[in-house]
Amino acid sequence: MADTSTPDIVYTKVDEAPELASASLLPIIQSFATAADITVGTRDISLAGRILATFPDHLTEDQRVSDDLAALGELVKQPGANVIKLPNISASVPQLVAAVRELQGQGYAIPDYPETPETEAEKEVRARYDAIKGSAVNPVLREGNSDRRAAAPVKKYAQNNPHRMGDWSSDSKTRVASMGADDFFSNEKSATLDGAATAKIVLEGANGETVLKDGVSYPAGTVVDATYMSASALDDFLADEIKKTKDEGVLFSLHLKATMMKVSDPIIFGHAVREWLKPVFEEYGDRMKELGVNPASGMGDLLERVKDEPEIMAAIEDCRAARPPMYMVDSDRGITNLHVPSDVIIDASMPALIRSGGKGWGPDNKEHDAVCVIPDSSYAPVYDETIKFFKEHGKLDPATAGTVQNLGLMAQKAEEYGSHPTTFEIPEDGTVKMLLEDGTVLHSHEVQKGDIWRSASARKAPIEDWVNLAIERQKATGYRAIFWLDENRAHDAELISFVKPILESKGVADKFEIMAPREATRASLETITKGENTIAITGNVLRDYLTDLFPILELATSAKMLSIVKLMNGGGLFETGAGGSAPKHVQQLQSENHLRWDSLGEFCALGESFKFLGETKDNARARILGETIEEATQGILDHNRSPSRKVGEPDNRDSHYWFARYWAEALAAQTDDPKLAEEFAPMARALAENEDQIVSELAAAQGSPADTGGYYHPDEGRLAAVMRPSPTLNGIIGT
């Protein structure tokens, strides 16, 4: 029977390494929380959980699961919401297909993912699966705007223990390449609606009118955008950059976000694969189509489908030899930048390359300069300017660098390009129009077959909340505050028309600057290089990019960021950082039973969640639990108790032991609640006295393959056995 009650704190069940870590950490959290009469329960927003919730009609009664994502979508609109959100998979098609196969192998009779649906039944199944793809979770849960920053203990530790940075050379050949014309940036149109409206999106072509989307509703004051990327211009750009890269003798690399931009970026990715192997497709395209080759699925899938075709394989090798060397995702295993669309995550790949001094790994397993191909020029200038800055000034010094905090506009699906059903690959030449119900043409574009057209919006209430949040944060910190908005971009110009009047009405216009992303990038780098701090106030996509870029430069990782979403109706959503490296962590656990995932992001979010609960529920013990979590987190950092990367050394499970110990010791030592201190004193003593036994039990678990019963849908019993291998620790915690 499913648990339908709402716990005080909802801890999300997700995927990959964060979910593995939860099997070890969550029992500790639940045990400590009982001291304050706080319930901590889970809700499943994992990819596997969402798939199962989508197909109840294909499952037996005991296999059916509740639609936890929909339930959480309603919860975050309530004043009492308190949700800790861990990183979840934003599924690409290959990931979705792999998860479906795993679930089918476990006995769930869900349908296959229809790559090319033909029947009405297949189209209906495809529509259900498409709702799961990409960033399907975040737009549902983010009913507030984002406040992301490095927690004070984390920033202090990074300055005292600076991570290695690659050296930059002024003659580095690394550069950013973007289209600059006929792309989403250059073709964008934007308008703010005076009143509430319902629109439909139509394509007027030679065969008449095709309705692409009907019944898109907007409240008054919504900023509505529309734009497109020319497919022919994209192909010309890619061909030109491949040639230039070959001439320059550096690596070719593509940087997109096919997981979040679930419609547009996979199409762009497919264009890159096709252009890279253009001679092969020209000669063997028909046969490859028969074999089910889809360039958007990547080189890995393509090679698997043609492996028994010697002529095609030989043609691919000839083509590779004529191309520039490829940036490698995993050079040891021959995984290229074009292998799998979900491996191409710009907000992780570009900061990693920049941190390495502009170097990427080539097929020879050595580092080289690289051309970073970012087709759309909307935000490519951020990375371009960062690279230029470090070429001029050398690498950033983490020991002295200030910090860039971020306030991001994201509430109520603001700027959710590609993550919702208003992005289309155009089926024929014609004109795409956004028509209001009174016949008004809001936006119109002349397009050609294969072009990528998309629309997004930002509502008035979230925009106003975002600006007011920025005012509060600047007042609290006194930091330099910059709105990253380009007056020459259609969407940004509309946002500026909201921002300026609010700042002026509050009498704080002199406290803020408004700069285009390129200029804001340089200003922010100049600020932190001097050891000073700044707040980047950005839209949704830039929020995503910058909260990886700057943390990776400052801290070496974005997983340790404090991310607070002040929900617009009064609740709190506490996010725990990024999960881009999670797949490699899972692979290491499976092969060596060593999990190097660092739960520091979870610790930071947990402390904020308990303190928030203390404030909203007037629960003094919850507040004390939150404050002592901060002390425990500081202890993890001060005593270097974070996981090691190598098998045989302390891993994630060890860090959880130390977190529990430091937390219990802090609770036993606090004086605000003597009875609470008395309750935790025995646990604190037991954890300390049994250190050798616990550490040895945890160490003994490592070294052999670990079986959790599944990658996307692990067996709970097996997972618990793997992640909780210390009977002594489990007994002391009481679970």
Could you please describe the fold and organization of this structure?
By secondary structure, the protein is of the alpha/beta class. The chain is built from 26 helices and 24 strands. The strands form 5 sheets. Strands 2-1-3-24-23-4-15-22-20-21 form a 10-stranded mixed sheet, with helices on both faces. Strands 5, 10, 13 and 14 form a 4-stranded mixed sheet that branches. The protein has a 4-stranded antiparallel sheet with strand order 6-9-19-16. The longest helix has 19 residues, at 620-638. The mean pLDDT is 94.
Assembly state: single chain
Rg from alpha-carbon coordinates: 26 Å
- What ranges have pLDDT less than 50 throughout 5 or more consecutive residues? none
Secondary-structure content class: alpha/beta
The count of strands amounts to 24
Residue-averaged pLDDT, rounded?
94
- State the share of residues found in helices, binned by percent: 40-55%
Strand content: 15-25%
How far the N terminus sits from the C terminus, by CA atoms, comes to 22 Å
Number of helices: 26
- How does the major sheet shape up? 10 strands, mixed
